[in-house]
Amino acid sequence: MRWNLTYVDDIMGNYEYVSFVRSRYEHAKFDISGRALTYDDLKEFKIPYLYDRSQLRLPEISLLPKVKALYKFQPLAVVIGKDPYEAEDLVEDIEVSYTPVSGPLYEEIPDNIIYKEGVKGEVDSKNVITLTLNFDRNSQYPLESRIVAVRFTGDDVVLHISTQIPTVVKLLVAEMLEIPQHNIIVDTPRVGGGFGAKQDLILEELSVIALAYKLRKNLKWIEKRAESVMTSQARGQKHEVKVGFNDNGKVEAVYDKITYDVGAYLLPWTGISPLFVTLATIRAVYEYQFYYEATALLSNRPPQGAYRGFGRPEAVFVTERIMDEVARYLKKDPLDIREVNLKEPSGDVGDIKTVFGKLRQKYVELKEKYKKGVGVSFYIQYAAPNSEIMIKHEKSLVPGYECVRAILDTDGWIEIEITATDQGQMMDKAIRNLVIRELGYDKVRVRLAVTNLKGSGVWASRTMLTMGNAALLAIRKLKDIAKAIDPELNWEKLGLKMRSQPWLVKDISSVACYEPSEFVGTVSGQISVVTVDDFSRIKPLYHYIIADVGEVGDANNVIGQLIGGALQGISGSLYENIQDEYSYLIAKANESPIFEVDLLHAPSRTPSGVRGVGENGPTGAYAAVTNAINDLGIKCNKIPINLEGE
């Protein structure tokens, strides 16, 4: 067979490479000289959004800025080279003149406030303390940076893209290009890490796609590490807290002035949803009157995106610092204070009594052993928000359900199709295990990143709760269909029958959709032990995690997820400083503590009994580490750590 070389070039890529001219200033008017593509080349493309913007004061923004840079490293223009090296050289040839400016980012928003809400009230208890808690930004720092390659096959736009959300990418790109979704093919089975950074499409990715479509060129962009660190960021909240409590340690009221650092603009999907998650989480475990004023504020920083935990670590940082400071004020045991303040949680969260009891026992052991430098956090990690929560409370236009297709192939294999990509969680293995247990039959494979199903990919610890449960429901439907054809239900024999007698059996497949009817949570606790080394640096020694994870698809994967997530929280607390753009440090193996993980298995009230754990580790780790530092007698209310007084 002789290949058509044009066709070979098309399927193999034959890409030209994109590089961005980026701002050297955080707020400046600019003028570009040289052969680069700028605002005028992409101004006809409108940025798509997946949330209700009616309650937000938002300016109109473009893929590339017209005259003013709003943050350092913002992309100002695009160059195209035959390879990545030529593209980098072409960037160096572009001249940019800057005129630094001050004042608001947008003239139409002079106070930089895009959203504000609150509940008024007074804190007038017998005992009152105040805390200023700063949770500065971290970078998600996935092993694989962003990659997008765009090519064309007939009328179809083919996207090879490192993303957690292939179905959502398809939706957003179709809206931006104003073409039908069926003309977009997204190819992303596995991803080299995401941690929430790839839950959204950033404007660089949209710019590459729009430019490729306009020029009808095969284009590829590979994000450099410095670009990733400086433009993919999350967290960024400040809490000025006033706490009132009685002599027994019962917190009666909390007033929290919250400032949410939006960055220069909002991303197409994330929006300010992490703020809503923080507000929903801040009273998940403890009972008290909660008054607050929350302000979402524009800043000369990159847009804030998603990061593992998505607003939960910030909330737990606040509540757990409060509990420790109340205990310190009253000279009481921190676990006693937490127990006094426990509430009856909403939803399906697991065995609170056992988790808390084991956490207390371990805390006592560690205090006896180490004396100081021991910090605790206790929390409920809610996962898989359903459609009501997503649409009513988080203002999203994306529902919470997920659909799964189960297919019997003619070779006797059962294929499970899901919208999720894999970032190393191995959820395909876990779902496969659930299906095998259900069927007692092991010729099962899971196909990732299917985009002709209703669903929205990987985010919010939801894969097992939505897709895992939907897979079980789809398999049960498939079993009913198969039994009607073959009462003895021999899967391999039935597959052979499909192959040899297609006029009798045309298709054996089923689709099921699922979302939890109530919030499903994982009641959890963490204890961190830290010390000060010979160089006056905080060093983590030991870290304990306990979580009621319900039924599991793969226990080793769950343990790995908990340890990896907790290490991200430890790293984000001790090492990561977003101001160090070229020397951003993350914890390596030699900076890691000894980990111990304790799992409980009270089944959730879902078909599979699973609970979500993907975001659990970082949710409690930041608070445990900072409480441990304070237990050393070092005042620390800032993440990454700021040892006050030094």
From TrEMBL:
InterPro entries: Ald_Oxase/Xan_DH_a/b (IPR000674), Ald_Oxase/Xan_DH_a/b_sf (IPR036856), Ald_Oxase/xanthine_DH-like (IPR016208), AldOxase/xan_DH_MoCoBD1 (IPR008274), AldOxase/xan_DH_MoCoBD2 (IPR046867), AldOxase/xan_DH_Mopterin-bd_sf (IPR037165). It comes from Stygiolobus caldivivus. It comes from the Archaea. Pfam families: MoCoBD_1, MoCoBD_2. Keywords: Molybdenum, Oxidoreductase. The keyword Oxidoreductase applies. SMART domains: Ald_Xan_dh_C. GO terms for molecular function: iron ion binding; oxidoreductase activity. This is Quinoline 2-oxidoreductase. Residues 2-102 form the Aldehyde oxidase/xanthine dehydrogenase a/b hammerhead domain. Coiled coil: none annotated.
